[in-house]
Amino acid sequence: MGSVPLRLPVFRPHRDDILLSAGSWLAGLLLWKLGLFNQGNRDLMPSWVTLVPMTLLAGVELIRRTSPQLALTLATLGVVADQFTWGNLATVIMFADIVYAAVVYGTPSAARRIPITTGMVTLAATIGFLAWFKKPDALLFGLIVGAVSFGPAMTGVTLRNHRQAAEAARLRAEQTALLAEIDHNQAVLAERTRMARELHDMVANHLSAIAIHSTAALSIDTPETSSRALAVIRENSVQGLAEMRRLIGLLRAGNEHEEPSAAPTLDGLDALLEQSRAFVADTGLTFVLDDARPAALKLPTPVELAAYRIVQESLTNALKHASPGPVTVALAHADGTLTVTVTSRFGSDRPGPRAPGSGAGLVGMEERVTLLDGTLEAGPVTRADDTKIWQVRAELPAEDDSKELPI
User: Which CATH topology does 179-397 take?
Assistant: First the structure.
């Protein structure tokens, strides 16, 4: 089993840090060459010793961005050592920059801790110099300490806060854009669902009648049956085309040159049932409307449209599947609720051809009822006389719009 080679971390200082380090070191070298020092003469120490802490600070500048806490520790040691030499202004300036970088690039806890620490050091230095020299001029020393430690730390805090605020604003903008995109997609999906539901409800009844009568015309080859079937087929084709034009009018409602056709209401149920009677003359189905609504009742347009489509789809299902017998449509309104009930015989003893079903009609009815916060029940029901019927019952919240609002 071979040994795993030791991999040291790759040290790659930032390009700006390299330029800053080289420039600072050259500036410090120039100051030393010119004999410009911060401290008084140190007769016991050669002046070139000043270059040692200055070179250390220049090297630390290379890691100010990648390892800010280590850089601050080494820089603190370097600037303290500089006080025991002739002193170089470049060393002090580089220390101030490293304090600033430690706040900007360091951890959040370090960014909170460094300003407090430098502030306490500044205060302690000011009090110490006053106690030592006992002159107001000692305040200048505290000011210098604050300028190279506390000042850069607060500058770093300000910049870091601005960066965090900008990042938070960017994230909020991205979240807002994402939410807007989600809302747009949901709106598009809801509109497509509404269009699919409306298209199904409008043409399913007519196409079912066309399918039944075309099957009858093909299976019963008599002139009378064929003529009657073709008449029904033509009538449903014309009405289906009119319904499609109405849907196109709804889609073009935003065009100022197009006016959408009026949506069907419950007042058109008589014509709808009369049409159904013409469709199923030979199937034994009869259609009865039991409208128990108040005479002056006025319902909201969405409720009227939903109730009409529920009745239309129920009649289409009866046309496809119901056994001979009455198909009853009952309407009632009480306590702010419109109740729509459609019942038909349930069984398989109906003569003649039938149209296949897809199940999309029940889904469409459930969607319409859900949008209005209503309830829908659809399924077989056994009466007291053991007669099986198929019942569709929808309850839609619907206040009477004809009532005047109180002043």
Answer: Heat Shock Protein 90 (3.30.565)
- Which position has the token pair 């410009």? 36
**CB-count exposure of residue 12 (10 Å: 0-12, 13-18, 19+):** exposed
Question: CA end-to-end span of the chain, whole Å?
Answer: 93
Question: pLDDT for 132-147, tens place per residue?
Answer: 777 777 778 878 888 8
CB atoms within 10 A of CB 214: 16
Contact between 367 and 338 under an 8 Å Cβ cutoff? The reply is: no
pTM for the full predicted model: 0.51
**Element housing 209 (H / E):** helix 150-219
CB within 8 Å of 355: residues ≥ 6 apart: 207, 208, 211, 212, 215, 319, 320
Domain map (residue ranges) of the chain: 15-171, 179-397
- Strand-pairing partners, residue 388, are 382
Dihedral through CA 121, CA 127, CA 128, CA 133, nearest 10?
140
Q: How far apart are CA 180 and CA 203, in angstroms?
A: 34
pLDDT in tens, 330-345: 999 988 899 999 999 8
Which residues on neighbouring strands pair with residue 288, listed in sequence order?
Answer: 328
288: number of Cβ within 10 Å: 11
